[in-house]
Design goal:
Length: 137
């Protein structure tokens, strides 16, 4: 098992859009957005299995998400994470004077996290402001 250095792109998806209509605390939103899509070759290199959890780390944060094979074109070295609460944990705040964070084209490391659990949207948001504690909500 290895850490992979990848280029990250966040993206919208039909699944994310439909689930967001039900609310960000809905289980459908959790399943649609707490995932990363990767090239199967990269997954194999890092010892990552389909539907297993991985830890994604950028310069500004870490998040645990479920890994799946890319559902659209994704060459080796690139990964997609769906926009939402989980992506926001690792998106750099840089805006290049546009007022919008750098949602695409930033470096991350991805590694297996088989024993770690994905947090819910509520846990991530509460954790960001110091309200969520392990074993809590």
């Amino acid at each position: 098992m290895t850490k992979l250095n990848l280029n990250m792109i966040t993206q919208r998806s039909v699944e994310e859009g439909a689930a967001m209509e039900k609310g960000k605390t809905n289980p459908d939103y959790f399943e649609a957005c707490s995932i990363i899509e990767m090239n199967p070759e990269d997954m194999k290199k890092a010892g990552i299995w389909v539907n297993s959890n991985v830890k994604v780390t950028s310069e500004c944060g870490t998040v645990v998400v479920k890994c799946i094979h890319a559902t659209q074109y994704c060459p080796p070295g690139l990964a997609h994470i769906r926009q939402g609460v989980w992506a926001n944990q690792v998106v750099p705040p840089r805006t290049q004077s546009t007022g919008t964070p750098q949602y695409s084209g930033f470096p991350v490391t991805v590694e297996p996290a088989f024993t770690e659990e994905r947090k819910t949207a509520l846990q991530l948001v509460q954790g960001a402001v110091g309200l969520w504690k392990k074993g809590g909500n």
